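Bench notes, afternoon.
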Amino acid sequence: MGLRGPVVFALLAVAASAQYWPEELPAAGREALLKDGVWVGPKEFRQVFEAYNDPPCTIFVTTDGPIVAGYRLMERTVMRMERWSFAQMPRGLRELEAKLGKAERSLELPADTAEAAARRARLVVAVARLLLGEEPAGLDDATLAQARECAALVERAAGVSMPPGLGPPDPEWQGLDWRVFRPRGAYAGDDRYERAFRATRWLQSVPFRFERAEEADAFRLLHAARESADRGRGGQRLEPSPMWATRLFRTTVNAWVYDDGWWLAPAFQPGTHSLRFVPEAALPEDATFRDLLDPGGRSPIVGAGFPCGLVVATALGSPLAREALAPHNLGKIARDSSGPGWIAASNRMRMALLDPAEPDAPALFSSAAWQRKSLRTALGSWALERNVWTLHSPPVTSAREPKTLAGLVEPDPDAFAALAAMGRVILAWMEESELDGEAMRIEYADGVLAYARASVRSILDPQSNPALTPSPENLLRSLRDQGALGDPEYQRISTDAQRQIVESATSGGDVKQEVRRALLEPMLAACERWHARMTDPFARVDGPARGRPMRPEWERWIDLCTRLELLAHRQLRQREWSDEDAAFLEGYGVALGKIMGYSPGSVRLPVDDAPRAAAVICDPVNEVMRIVGTGRLRELWVLYPRRDSRIACRGVVLSYYELDAKEAPTDAEWKAMLDSKEPPPEPPWITGR
């Protein structure tokens, strides 16, 4: 009888330690979960929602899902506005060039600087026009030759040197690192975007130094020419390159600089004694990087091997990053989330991720293992941020789980709330910029024209794309329904085609060939004319703007983040899910994929990959760049304590990489590096190994 108590307690202890493990969880994962409660497994997913479709066990909803979806939306939103800005750019540069003569006469510059200032101003504009594929005007032969040489160096995108005609070098400017002109991210792969990328980066890069009178006067000429062009349009501003993104940054790049009796235009380059005609949008970490790489009065720290991620995470408040950064002896780095706008909102989200766990959260969310997970997420989202702004900020349980438990949520309501706040910043900006109005039509017109061209190719050669081979008649109706053909054009093309078909049949000709010729040529020509009108931002287009508005997708993303915030609060208080909550979690993967713009089929099996990379720091001395990036998403297993049991559930986590390379890879090259036989490793301070 005396042994009954201990035996009973021993049996209860054994029963309590019993754990239901999903079959997909390997033994190594079980050991890690029992030790740390968190395990990042080797399985990878092409897209973030894939892990939540037909899950093998209880799902675990992490902040990584909404983060990846939000940055995919942001990438599409930015590129929609870029289409609009890039469409204005050629006209802006032409008008600027045309007004330079008037500016020269009105400013009455000193005789000793007037000629050099005018030549420099025209050279800068001429290179931008050449990069857009246009021929500049008003240049002498020597200056035109220098402009062509500069444009060739930009397009070659290799080496470090002074641009021809813009010297001499000085301690602040030893030349341009031409590698930064290589189009990357969403700008790579489309000739129009690549040209606009190079032209914009050129205008961002050429300095006008205060101490050189002819350069300061050249900047005044450009500024006066732009003001004159604006007045000629009744005050409507037409920028020579896309500066719209600075509205989302709200940084000091719009500060005016007083110099020698002049208030100079909003293009001051922080930390220098020069101006840029088009400012870069300084991200918060850029100033920190600049101070650490080139500290006043001390030897500069080279860019190669610079711990970018650790610096950023330390500034966001991560104790783990601060500890890993200590051996680098970089000094104290203050926590910072200054300024309004999308960038500050996104940094507040990352700070929420790295803050101490909620008091009501299970203990594992205060562990070092979870801190490493949060660090992955925060820095992975930062790498996505840098990729989006590539152009505008160049290179910084005891029982089997109950069937009713659909999933669990990362217990960090503040992070989900911060994500929703980021979305509301975007909605306010979209309202101001009318992004779903005129700016939408170029994107729509590009898609319709691409569809028409591909359809015509497949009709003429059915073997080229058997899946897309409509009949000429169906293509004609489709283009009418999409607005590319008006009713008069539709009727005229149809009537002419019928007449030619009858004539061909009467004369014994090839009727099928006549149908193609009679319909396809005029139909494609009409579609090209429609596309030219639609993509001209200055053309009057009657009727409502066609296309797929972004606002509803952002609103759905905000709703999703807000819903996850509420679920996190409910879970922290250990409340049961309602039927509505369970249904939301069961459909979470599909909902996330739809928000990201995937069709029903690709939501189940995504056809593209998630990796992105960006250059943060250029080291021209050693000819290397510091690259940060995120690879494919990794499976994340969590042994979540819930009442008297622990539930093994699976979610996803971002990856983070940091390395040196001769030049920043494009997205395609970055994927190839990750898929190579020797892919780059994640930093040991983030893997814990």
